[in-house]
Structure formats: C-alpha cells, structure tokens
C-alpha cells in the first residue's frame, strides 16, 4: 500500500503558493484596491500581499509566458497566477517593487487594470483556432470588442464590474450563462448530411443517439447506410457533428452572434443570476465584427448612464424592467425572446405586473 500511486492528477495546489499566502492561509481579513490594477490583501497577522493585475490575450505563446515569468522572477520571487478570466496577477510582498512590475508590463505592451468597477479580460473559448463546432471565431471578436471597450479596462468608471464572456457555439464552454454581457455563436441551419462520407466515417447508432432532440433517423434507403435529419426538430446544437464528421453544421453566411445579458456569479446584494437573451442575431462579420462591437458598446453606454453605483448589469435590468431595457437599448423584441423550453414554467413571469 505504501507504494500505491493515488495522487496521479494535477499537483496539489498548495505546492505552488507563495510563502506569504501559505503562512496566512484562511486568515485573510480584508482587501483593498490601491489603484486600478493593484490590490492589497491584509492578513490577521498583519502580513500583506500585493497583486498587480495585467491583461492577457488568453491564447498566448510560450515566449510570452516566459516574458511574464521573467518579470515575476525579477520582482515577485517567481510568483504569478492566472485568474479565471485569464488576467495575469503578479504577487508581491514588497510594495516598493510594484512600480518595477508596472514598468516591465508597459515595456511588453501589457495593460494593467481589470480590478473593481472595470471591464475585466473577456473570457473566451477556442473559436476557429482549435474547436470543431464553432459558429463564430472567439479571439477575433474578443479582440475587436475589447479594443473598443479598452477605456474601461484600466479605470473604475463604470457603476460596477462588468464581466464579458464569449462562447463560439451554444455548447458554451465560456461563462456565457453567468456574465454581465455574453457573446454567443449560434448556428441557424441544420447539419448537412454528406452521405458518401458518412457510411465510411460514422457509426449510425451512436450518431442517432447523439441528438438530444431525436432529430436523426436512419435513412429510409437502407443501401445508402446513412441518416436523415428532421429539420423541424433540429435545434442546431452541433452535437451530432462531434460524433460524426460527415454532418458539418457550420454555415458562414447563416451562422451568427447572439447577445445575452444580466448574468453574474457573485452573491453580493442579490443571488447569482443567469443571463437572458437580448439580441437574437447579429451577422458573423470578420475581421472586426462591427455590428457586435456596436451592440455591446450600446448596452454598456446605457448601463453606465442608467445604473446606480454598485449595480451589476442584471440588477440594473431587473430594477428598470426588461421592457424598459429593450426600449433604452433600442433592441426589438422578437419571437426568439419567448422562452419555449419545456421546463420554462419555472422562469415564466406569472404575475400581471409590468414596469414601464
Ligand atoms: S463553445 Fe462550442 S465551438 Fe466553442 S470551443 Fe466550446 S464546444 Fe467548441
Ligand atoms: S444539430 Fe443537434 S439537434 Fe440538430 S440533428 Fe444534430 S444533434 Fe440533433
């Protein structure tokens, strides 16, 4: 038993903690934001740890990571971490070294910010770079949107923090359901069946079983050894394409972008909230996706104008009412906004109370 290998997953987290964090584990009393991008956490013992938070493009090269590590080696005893939104945090115990970290970041072209009432790094999925079912690119749209909102990254001008996320299909490996503004790639056409390839590439029973709505059936012509898709039942999720590469779902012209708003993970003041559909379709328009950039900017502007201090986007929308939100952001209400999911009864508004 002594030689039994049980810990074969990732190394235990505390192996890499900076000594000051290890020594004060569970004893942190409070934290403050000293300036945009710089935090201090104070322990019951009086120990302090300073964090300088910087942006990253998420998909990074090993050279870039090495450069970040050089900065951490020089000023932070070799300690840094990546936040869940892919910001880089340099962790220091010596306040006098903060200026050195900031200068080094500036030289690398890495912005400092993402604390407090700012727009943090946009968390995003793989997009065209890596995944097989995206309806849109991920990094390209995020770059275009963040370029436009960059003034909010290193400042505290907004009423509260705004978390933006992007998922390039509705399988949604981004935090789309729980972000203030979410950009979601949507397919709008059923998969195209390539009968010649399907019989060689795919197992028909597993392909049929992969469809959550039961839209796939064996082809009536048994000699074809293929499938047919009932377009009425298809919800364009792309799950069958994961099982069977002969069912491509991407359509560059018809796929597009939906925007969802009002999600949050935080349980401060109000419970965590799911985001809801705001804009059902915007065109997939590379290389700079101007329609998406403008729509996100408009929602942010109206939020910045209308929200109370500390109010997250979802809390602002709930306070003024969704009808008013659609009106102020000039978003048309369409049939796609009607929730027809079979468990939707739980989320339906069941009173006659409208707020205008
Ligand atoms: S959101 Fe969809 S397309 Fe994008 S990386 Fe995840 S599974 Fe792939
Ligand atoms: S895209 Fe989704 S709903 Fe449509 S056939 Fe494939 S698995 Fe079924």
Summarize the structure.
With 356 residues, the chain is α+β, with helices and mostly antiparallel strands.
What is the rounded Rg? 24 Å
Give the beta-strand count: 12
Percentage beta strand: 15-25%
**Bound ligand species:** iron/sulfur cluster
Along the chain, the helix and strand elements come as HEEEHEEHEHEEHHEEHEEHHH
Q: Rough shape?
A: globular
Approximately how much helix is present in the residues? Answer: 25-40%
The low-confidence parts are: none
Query: Largest sheet at a glance?
Result: 5 strands, antiparallel
Strand order of the largest sheet: 1-2-3-5-4
Q: What separation lies between the terminal Cα atoms?
A: 69 Å
Count of alpha and pi helical runs = 10
Decide which structural class fits the backbone. alpha+beta
Organism: uncultured sulfate-reducing bacterium
Keywords: 4Fe-4S, Iron, Iron-sulfur, Metal-binding, Oxidoreductase
Cofactor: [4Fe-4S] cluster; siroheme
Domain 4Fe-4S ferredoxin-type: 225-255
Write the layout of secondary structure elements.
Blueprint lengths: L18 H5 L4 E8 L2 E6 L4 E7 L7 H14 L4 E3 L5 E5 L5 H11 L14 E2 L14 H11 L14 E4 L13 E6 L8 H7 L2 H6 L6 E3 L8 E3 L9 H5 L12 E6 L14 E8 L6 H17 L6 H8 L1 H7 L28
Parallel strand pairs: 6-7, 7-8
Antiparallel strand pairs: 1-2, 2-3, 3-5, 4-5, 8-11, 9-10, 11-12
Helix pairs in contact: 2-3, 4-8
This protein binds iron/sulfur cluster (SF4) (2 copies).
Keywords: 4Fe-4S, Iron, Iron-sulfur, Metal-binding, Oxidoreductase
Cofactor: [4Fe-4S] cluster; siroheme
Protein name: Dissimilatory sulfite reductase beta subunit
């Amino acid at each position: 038993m002594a030689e039994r290998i049980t810990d074969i997953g990732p190394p235990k987290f505390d192996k890499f903690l900076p000594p000051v964090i290890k020594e004060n584990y569970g004893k942190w009393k409070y934290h403050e934001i000293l300036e945009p991008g710089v935090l201090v956490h104070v322990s019951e013992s009086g120990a302090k740890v300073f964090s300088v938070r910087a942006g990253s493009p998420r998909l990074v090269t090993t050279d870039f990571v090495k450069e970040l590590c050089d900065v951490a080696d020089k000023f932070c005893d070799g300690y840094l971490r990546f936040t869940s939104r892919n910001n880089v945090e340099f962790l220091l115990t010596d306040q006098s070294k903060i200026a050195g970290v900031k200068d080094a970041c500036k030289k690398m072209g890495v912005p400092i910010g993402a604390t407090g009432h700012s727009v943090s790094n946009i968390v995003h999925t793989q997009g065209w770079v890596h995944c097989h079912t995206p309806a849109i690119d991920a990094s390209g749209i995020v770059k275009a949107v963040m370029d436009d909102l960059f003034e909010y990254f290193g400042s505290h001008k907004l009423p509260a923090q705004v978390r933006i996320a992007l998922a390039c299909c509705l399988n949604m490996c981004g935090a789309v359901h729980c972000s203030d503004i979410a950009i979601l790639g949507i397919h709008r056409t059923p998969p195209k069946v390539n009968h010649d390839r399907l019989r060689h590439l795919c197992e028909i029973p597993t392909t049929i079983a992969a469809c959550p709505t039961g839209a796939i059936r064996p082809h009536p012509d048994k000699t074809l050894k293929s499938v047919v898709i009932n377009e009425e039942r298809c919800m364009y999720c792309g799950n069958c394409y994961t099982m069977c590469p002969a069912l491509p779902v991407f359509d560059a012209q018809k796929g597009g972008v939906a925007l969802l708003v009002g999600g949050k993970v935080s349980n401060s003041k109000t419970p965590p909230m799911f985001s809801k559909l705001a804009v059902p379709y915007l065109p997939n328009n590379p290389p700079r996706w101007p329609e998406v950039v403008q729509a996100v900017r408009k929602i942010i502007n109206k939020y910045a104008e209308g929200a109370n201090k500390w109010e997250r986007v979802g809390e602002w929308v709930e306070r003024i009412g969704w009808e008013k939100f659609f009106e102020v952001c000039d978003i048309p209400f369409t049939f796609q906004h009607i929730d027809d999911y079979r468990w939707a009864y739980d989320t339906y508004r069941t009173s006659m109370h409208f707020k205008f």
